[in-house]
Amino acid sequence: MVICSLIKMWFLVPFLRIYMYINLALCMLLFIEKVYMVVVVVVNKLFGQKPEKLYKWEPFEDDVELGTSHYPLVLVQVPMFNEREVYQLSIGAACGLSWPSDRIVIQVLDDSTDPLIKGMVEMECQSWASKGVNIHYQVRDNRKGYKAGALKEGLKHDYAKQCEYVVIFDADFQHEPDFLT
């Protein structure tokens, strides 16, 4: 019994005391952070700072004289891997962006391992291509780097190098048609 109390007194009590001070310091840091965040929010509310005031941006407008040439050429990459449930929606959303058709390139990067899904995605791309959409269906022979590797590989094509901007939409992300404007 004496040994047990000696162990508690010499080892357990100092450890718990140090642990308590560490927790107290962390609690104080959290409290200071909360107070700081309240001050930042109040200052922003009082002075009315909004991102629209900090960053001057205007949506693109059609210019009759220039036509669509003042629009930048945009590459839209859609990486996929066995996306059976959402491949039609994601390809349709990318092809349905409100942007001049001669200034946009859709690139579907399919790393699917299921041949049935690969066939369905390819047929969907061909369907959109027959409607006049500039869409490219790309397949790799390996999955090195997974989706990021497919994106990197997609940028190596000549038509991708001509694009000024690159937009990446994951297959399950549904964006608004006016995303680019």
Structure in words:
It contains six helices and four strands. By secondary structure, it is an alpha/beta fold. It folds into two domains: 2-52; 74-168, Spore Coat Polysaccharide Biosynthesis Protein SpsA, Chain A, CATH 3.90.550. Helix 4 links the parallel strand 2 (104-110) and strand 3.
What's the layout of helices and strands?
Elements: H1 2-47, H2 51-54, E1 74-80, H3 87-95, E2 104-110, H4 115-130, E3 135-139, H5 146-154, H6 158-161, E4 165-168
Parallel strand pairs: 1-2, 1-4, 2-3
Helix pairs in contact: 3-4
Notable features of this structure?
181 residues; alpha/beta; Spore Coat Polysaccharide Biosynthesis Protein SpsA, Chain A; 4-stranded parallel beta sheet; 6 helices; 4 strands; 13% strand; elongated
In short:
By secondary structure, this protein is an alpha/beta fold. Helices cover 49% and strands 13% of the residues.
Tell me the strand order in the biggest sheet: 3-2-1-4
Sheet of most strands:
4 strands, parallel
CATH superfamily membership of the largest domain, which one?
Spore Coat Polysaccharide Biosynthesis Protein SpsA, Chain A
CATH topology category name of the largest domain: Spore Coat Polysaccharide Biosynthesis Protein SpsA, Chain A
Structural class: alpha/beta
How many whole angstroms does the radius of gyration measure? 28 Å
- N-C termini distance: 77 Å
What is the annotated CATH architecture of the largest domain?
Alpha-Beta Complex
Helical residue percent band: 40-55%
- Count the DSSP helices: 6
Shape: elongated
Strand segment count? 4
Beta strand %: 5-15%
What's the CATH class of the largest domain, please?
Alpha Beta
Low-confidence segments, given as residue ranges, are none
Mean pLDDT: 82
